């Protein structure tokens, strides 16, 4: 249980060494000097009975919300959560309108039968194609 809480917190906090990785990944991949200290701070706090939320709040109080890999969904940060969905829906609606724009007019033009002249010209073209030698592909 303690290990799960520790791993969860280390995965939610961004290391302050500049690598941009979460604390857990940085500790084992980058081997910086910040992540082991922070990991020990988290472990000590959890072992002393602090809740995960309290430990996270302590890091936010000390380092600001930039220490969180995902910013809290409040205030201006909501734009980052909502804008992609709004953009995708808007683009889909725009594409739908553009795709339908040329085909939906309200008036339906009946399809006319080809004239005898058109049929004769088509038959002549087909005859020429049949007589022509096909290319060797």
Describe the structure.
The chain has 137 residues and is mostly helical. Among the domains are: 66 residues, Cytochrome C biogenesis protein (Helicase, Ruva Protein, domain 3, Orthogonal Bundle); 28 residues. Helix content is 62%, strand content 0%. Helix 1 crosses helix 3 and helix 2 crosses helix 3. The longest helix has 25 residues. The radius of gyration is 33 Å and the shape is elongated. The N and C termini lie far apart (69 Å). 9% of the residues are buried.
Instruction: Provide the helix percentage.
Output: 55-70%
Shape: elongated
Unreliable stretches covering 5 or more consecutive residues: none
Q: Do you know the CATH topology of the domain at 2-67?
A: Helicase, Ruva Protein, domain 3
Helix count, DSSP H or I runs of 4 or more residues: 6
Determine the N-to-C terminus distance: 69 Å
* Average predicted local confidence, pLDDT: 85
- Structural class label: mainly alpha
């Amino acid at each position: 249980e303690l290990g799960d809480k520790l791993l969860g917190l280390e995965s939610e906090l961004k290391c302050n060494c500049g690598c941009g990785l979460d604390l857990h990944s940085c500790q084992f991949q980058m081997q910086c000097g910040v992540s082991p200290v922070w990991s020990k701070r988290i472990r000590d706090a959890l072992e002393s009975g602090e809740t995960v939320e309290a430990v996270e709040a302590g890091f936010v109080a000390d380092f600001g919300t930039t220490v969180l890999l995902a910013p809290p969904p409040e205030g201006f940060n909501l734009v980052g959560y909502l804008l992609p969905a709004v953009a995708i829906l808007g683009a889909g609606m725009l594409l739908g309108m553009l795709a339908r724009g040329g085909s939906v007019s309200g008036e339906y033009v009946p399809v006319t039968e080809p004239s005898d002249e058109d049929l004769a010209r088509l038959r002549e073209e087909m005859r020429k194609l049949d007589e022509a030698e096909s290319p060797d592909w």
